[in-house]
Structures are given as C-alpha cells and as structure tokens.
C-alpha cells in the first residue's frame, strides 16, 4: 500500500477512535480521587496510574501537547518514558507547561529520553564495551548498526525522532526550568527518591547507556 494511502487510513482511524478515548479519559478522571498519577505517551498497564497516549490504540486518549482537561493542582506525579523526543520543541514546551499546571505544588515530573551527549561520547571513543553493546542491541531490533557512526545515526533517524526533538541533560533541564520546574535532578533507571516513581522504566542494560532521566518538582 502506498505511504500516502496508509497515512490517510491512519488519520481516519485516529479521527474515529480519539473521541472514544477522550470520553474514557474524562470518565476515568471523574472517578479517580486526586492527587492523580498520570503517564504520557504509553499503552502499558500500570496499576494506580492513568496511562494516556495520543495513539489510536490508547484506551485513554490525551494529546499532551494540547490543553489538558485536568483540574490544576490535581496531579501528584507525571511520567513520560521516551515520549518527548517524538514531538517538536514547541510541542514539548507546551506539554511541560500543561504538566506544571496540572501538578500540585511539590508534585514531580519524571522524563526518560535518548541521551545525545552519551551517544556522542561513545562515538568519539568512549567505553568500547558499552558502544558495542548498544550497536548489538540496535542490530537485535532489526536496525542497521554496523559502524560507530550508527551510535549517532540511529537516535536521529530511527523511530520517528527526526520529526521531533532530541535532548541532552543541559537542554532538557533548561526546558524544565523554563516551564517553572525546580529541583531538577538526574536519576538512574528505576531509581528515585520519590517512592511512586521507582521501578517504572523497562529498559535493557545496553539501552540505559544512551538514555537519561530527569526529575523535577512543580
């Protein structure tokens, strides 16, 4: 099937399904007692969380880059695992502003995303064992990963990242600060000083070499 036809069909499916997902989300919000725990850009099942996505497959549809139908200050935790790199910088800024408004004072956001600085360090002669492990993981996923340059090429060209925006720790930290967040800190995968934000990521060891996680408080 032609790519253009696929795009039209996908757009039609989203148009039909998204109102259903939005209704489900509104109903879930009405039943849930604040403070809420909200996950963005996922289709996983996570007990105690409202897991949302802008995908046609989403049970609870939420485009995080648009105004959220959520009472300000009613959310305790926001989590997004490899979501922000799929939207543009302006869209990410809009989502961070919405998250800051939705979070209660002292509530926390946790973001996991590809780490361009880490990928560059591996490319420019960093830890050879880690670099080879990352390339091997990419090959297991069916990607072309034959040379060191693929450590940089893959994050920029695969998974639709070229349509979004990629970060290092400094740039994402600056965007969180711009949105009004404070207490910005880097965390290891599955670890947090906030009990509700522990054991969330499901990442292979090699993938963690080229990912980073930031938390920040509203």
Structure characterization notes:
This protein has helices spanning 3-31, 89-102, 116-123, 128-140, 150-157, 169-178, 205-208, and strands at residues 36-40, 50-53, 60-61, 75-81, 103-114, 182-187, 211-217. It is an alpha/beta fold and 218 residues long. The chain has a single domain (3-114, 168-217), classed as Rossmann fold, CATH 3.40.50. Strand 4, helix 2 (89-102) and strand 5 (103-114) form a beta-alpha-beta unit. The longest helix has 29 residues, at 3-31. The mean pLDDT is 92.
Highlighted features:
single chain, 218 residues, alpha/beta, Rossmann fold, 7-stranded mixed sheet, 7 helices, 20% strand
Structural class: alpha/beta
Instruction: Give the count of helical stretches.
Output: 7
N- and C-termini, Cα separation: 46 Å
Order of strands, main sheet, comes to: 3-2-1-4-5-7-6
CATH class: Alpha Beta
* Biggest sheet statistics: 7 strands, mixed
Order of helices and strands: HEEEEHEHHHHEHE
SS strand fraction: 15-25%
Q: CATH topology, which one?
A: Rossmann fold
Number of DSSP strand runs: 7
In short:
This protein has a 7-stranded mixed β-sheet.
Set out the fold topology.
Layout: H1 3-31, E1 36-40, E2 50-53, E3 60-61, E4 75-81, H2 89-102, E5 103-114, H3 116-123, H4 128-140, H5 150-157, H6 169-178, E6 182-187, H7 205-208, E7 211-217
Parallel strand pairs: 1-2, 1-4, 2-3, 4-5
Antiparallel strand pairs: 5-7, 6-7
């Amino acid at each position: 099937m032609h790519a253009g036809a696929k795009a039209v069909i996908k757009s039609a499916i989203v148009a039909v399904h998204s109102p259903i997902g939005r209704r489900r989300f509104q109903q879930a919000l009405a039943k849930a007692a604040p403070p809420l725990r909200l996950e963005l850009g996922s289709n996983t099942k996570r007990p105690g969380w409202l897991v949302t996505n802008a995908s046609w497959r989403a049970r609870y549809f939420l485009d995080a880059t648009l105004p959220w139908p959520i009472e300000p200050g009613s959310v305790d935790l926001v989590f997004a695992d490899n979501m922000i790199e799929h939207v543009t910088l302006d869209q990410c800024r809009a989502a961070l502003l919405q998250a800051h408004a939705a979070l209660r004072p002292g509530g926390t956001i946790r973001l996991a995303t590809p780490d361009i600085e880490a990928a560059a360090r591996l490319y420019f002669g960093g830890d050879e064992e880690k670099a080879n492990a990352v390339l091997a993981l990419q090959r297991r996923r069916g990607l072309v990963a034959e040379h060191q340059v693929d450590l940089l090429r893959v994050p920029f060209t695969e998974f639709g990242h070229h349509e979004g925006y990629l970060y290092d720790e400094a740039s994402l930290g600056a965007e969180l600060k711009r949105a009004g967040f404070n207490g910005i800190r880097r965390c290891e995968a599955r670890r947090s000083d906030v009990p509700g934000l522990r054991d969330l990521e499901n990442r292979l060891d090699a993938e963690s070499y080229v990912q980073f996680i930031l938390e920040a408080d509203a």
